[in-house]
Write a structure and sequence with these properties.
The protein has a single domain, classed as 3-Layer(aba) Sandwich (Aminopeptidase). 28% of the residues lie in helices and 34% in strands. The chain is built from five helices and eight strands; from the N terminus they run ββααβββαβαββα.
């Protein structure tokens, strides 16, 4: 699998590209917000952890189970960094990947996440040869649920109180789509 699938990739309003060092201030601005982590079951990282997280983004790998391929999502009109979209190599043998995304709340409600996630699903199927792509979402995260439902992913599971963060149990939904289903929808 080639890690550089003809990047950057452009959509109607966005550019998906590798992160560059100059992206750090905008990345840190949204990745340090506590409200971003509400559905990620983690606390917002400190400055040192943010720098380490960002350094890892600059050296992506997508060959082994667990590797994560992240792309910066840039608005074409003004080059603003809106967030990130990712594809995690969940199972090399089963050709499965997990799609994920984190966006600056300042850009919410405009369809950017849906557009970027659709592009990443396309990359997963057409360029990385995956068979199935899924998303795991906190059941209370209505914005993320809306993204995957607008894209036509199927809800395959509702896991009840399967995770705990800061003493609170949370439910999780799993949505998925197969390569042949995605291709049929795009035709």
């Amino acid at each position: 699998m080639s890690l550089d699938p003809d990047l950057p990739l452009t959509t109607e309003r966005l550019v998906l590209r590798k992160f560059t060092k100059s992206d750090f201030p905008a990345f840190a601005a949204y990745r340090s917000r506590p409200d971003i982590y509400r559905y990620l079951y983690a606390d917002a990282p400190d400055e040192k952890a943010l720098q380490q997280m960002f350094a890892k983004l600059l050296r992506p790998a997508f060959k082994q189970d667990g590797d994560v391929f992240k792309l910066a999502v840039i608005r074409r009109d003004d080059d603003a960094l809106l967030g990130e979209v990712l594809l995690k190599h969940e199972s090399k043998d089963a050709l499965q990947g997990e799609v994920g995304y984190i966006f600056n709340p300042a850009y919410a409600g405009k369809g950017y996440a849906t557009e970027a996630v659709a592009a990443m699903i396309d990359i997963g199927f057409s360029r990385f040869g995956l068979h199935r792509i899924f998303a795991r979402l906190d059941s209370l995260n209505r914005g993320s649920v809306g993204v995957v439902e607008r894209l036509g992913l199927r809800r395959e599971a509702h896991l009840v109180e399967n995770d705990r963060f800061n003493g609170t149990w949370g439910d999780e939904y799993i949505y998925a789509v197969l390569a042949r289903e995605w291709k049929a929808r795009q035709a």
